[in-house]
Amino acid sequence: MLPMTSLLVNVKIGVFKGVSAEPLTSVHFCLFVSLLQMFEFYERVSGARMHAAYVRPGGVHQDMPLGLMDDIYEWCKNFSIRIDEVEEMLTNNRIWKNRTIGIGVIGAEEALNYGFSGVMLRGSGIKWDLRKSQPYDKYDEVEFDIPIGSNGDCYDRYLCRIEEMRQSLRIMHQCLNKMPEGEIKVDDAKVAPPKRSEMKVTTELHELCGEFGVYLVSDGSSRPYRCKIKAPGFAHLAGLDKMSQGHMLADVVAIIGK
After folding, report:
1. The domain that contains 57 carries what CATH number?
2. What's the rounded Cα separation, in Å, for the pair 46 and 111?
3. Which parts of the chain have pLDDT scores under 50?
């Protein structure tokens, strides 16, 4: 489900943010149908459409329902066609390029100084991805590429997101093919979890907007003593003033959307 979450974020950005830069209705509906289908997959596996709470400390909440993997496989085959359609409509579109090329430029050194991560960093030419540099879960057992830009503008970040959607599909295909058979959790709601010990742990995860950090402190009780969450967008908004200088107010929509 993690690669699908990455894909879901990219599609939501394409539907609600990127399209705001130019009202291309055909792109909106092309991605919106796929977005609703992913929400359905989330609901089937966790009961929630957006905030799934499926991946938890120590693993996942429950086994996937029967037939879900087959449906995801068919969806992946169809969504690759949707990506081609979006590229055909946007990549060489004169209006789209006018609204994104040279907009929100940030250099590699400046991106590092601001603490950027994710596509905001890779769009400036820095090849950094936690799934490669500090792999977790099964990312060290799957093959995928890290797309990077060279100009650090909205257009390069758009190209990176398009390629990241293709790489997410590539990861999903490998995960589906390597998924072991049978259940992974006992079907007994009366099983008590193991005793929680005192601990401090910090974890960084790959999230399509950047690196998502969690600092968790446990005192042994059923509730965390402290939980600090660092979202990637906080650092990105700090650089908004720098990236939007000299541009029109309407360009801020494209900068935030990318």
Report:
1. 1.10.645.10
2. 36
3. 15-16, 19
The number of distinct structural domains making up the chain is 1
Among candidates 140, 119, 170, which has minimal Cα distance to 4? Answer: 170
pLDDT given at position 195: 67
Comparing CA positions, the residue from 217, 97, 110, 214 lying closest to residue 158 is 97
Judge whether 96 and 21 are in contact, CB under 8 Å: yes
Q: What is the percent of the chain with per-residue pLDDT over 70, rounded to a whole number?
A: 82
Q: Find the domain containing 40 and state its range.
A: 2-257
- Token representation of residue 97: 């390029």
Q: How far apart are CA 232 and CA 221, in angstroms?
A: 29
Nearest to 170 by CA among 66, 44, 77: 77
pLDDT tens for each residue of 61-113: 778 888 889 999 999 988 888 888 888 888 898 888 998 999 999 999 999 99
Instruction: Please name the amino acid found at residue 143.
Output: E
Q: Which residues contact 17 (CB under 8 A, 6 or more apart)?
A: 253, 256, 257, 258
In angstroms, the CA 88 to CA 109 distance is 33
**Structural tokens at position 107:** 């250099």
